Amino acid sequence: xxxxxxxxxxxxxxxxxxxxxxxxxxxxxxxxxxxxxxxxxxxxxxxxxxxxxxxxxxxxxxxxxxxxxxxxxxxxxxxxxxxxxxxxxxxxxxxxxxxxxxxxxxxxxxxxxxxxxxxxxxxxxxxxxxxxxxxxxxxxxxxxxxxxxxxxxxxxxxxxxxxxxxxxxxxxxxxxxxxxxxxxxxxxxxxxxxxxxxxxxxxxxxxxxxxxxxxxxxxxxxxxxxxxxxxxxxxxxxxxxxxxxxxxxxxxxxxxxxxxxxxxxxxxxxxxxxxxxxxxxxxxxxxxxxxxxxxxxxxxxxxxxxxxxxxxxxxxxxxxxxxxxxxxxxxxxxxxxxx
Length: 339
Prior knowledge:
By secondary structure, this protein is an all-alpha fold. 75% of the residues lie in helices and 2% in strands. The chain has 14 helices and 4 strands. The chain has helices spanning 3-7, 18-56, 63-88, 96-114, 116-139, 145-164, 178-181, 189-207, 209-219, 221-226, 231-257, 268-278, 290-309, 315-338, and strands at 169-170, 183-184, 187-188, 259-260. The chain has a two-stranded antiparallel sheet with strand order 1-4. A two-stranded antiparallel ribbon has the order 2-3. Helix 3 (63-88) packs antiparallel against helix 11 (231-257) and helix 5 (116-139) runs antiparallel to helix 11. Residues 1-9, 11-15 and 20-32 have low confidence and may be disordered.
């Protein structure tokens, strides 16, 4: 069947002249607006929510409450920093919640054998091993990242259950809680750890060759390979960093409560991913920045904090967070189609 049969006439030529130029300018302008909304919408949303809560509650803009928000967000924020690198490189990591849990178990069970300090170090370093396993599954075994990290998450949760026997591992050594409960200049160690981790990751992305390779691997992996970039190795490195960030967060929370348990952090991976996506990090890879994810996870925490301060039922928090996630993903898709 020819084009004439379908349209009832000969094919129309593409518009030319001033009309074509105007159409192109309209498309470019529309694409620019949508892209700007994706890139800086999180900034506007954060500022609007911050100002709204400031005027709606006398408690929100106080030192105690703001430090409490930062302390609550720190574990998720640390994991979001590592997860941002995975997203930008074109990957996906659902195992961070399980790594969070098993790292705290490893640290808690190691205290009687090597002491609290080295136990925390061992728990933190264990994340590298789990990240390496994810990198192998995705980049060597060629398993889809979603399926690979989902499977590894289930396996790690099961391993944590075997290690604990389903019991709560309690640490009686007082110094074990120093990392989770201690502070410097009135700010918890967890917040300082988050800040340091974010600065290092931000420098890596914006000022190093590896950072450029991460963007290239997510933006156009085939072109990156043709340029000599070892895309599989680059993505594996991001999984290593993501695993390490999850283990840091796990031992941080485990140190706060002086326990290790297989059920720790159930569902925390979804909060991490939500913060990353809300921050404007593209789920398709190749775009994003650490500061966006930081604002994303802070926005989520502020929503919950604001609901508590204004005596709104917490159940509505999940509804609003889900709607924001859908909106962020939709804007990302629109911006890509427009560009």
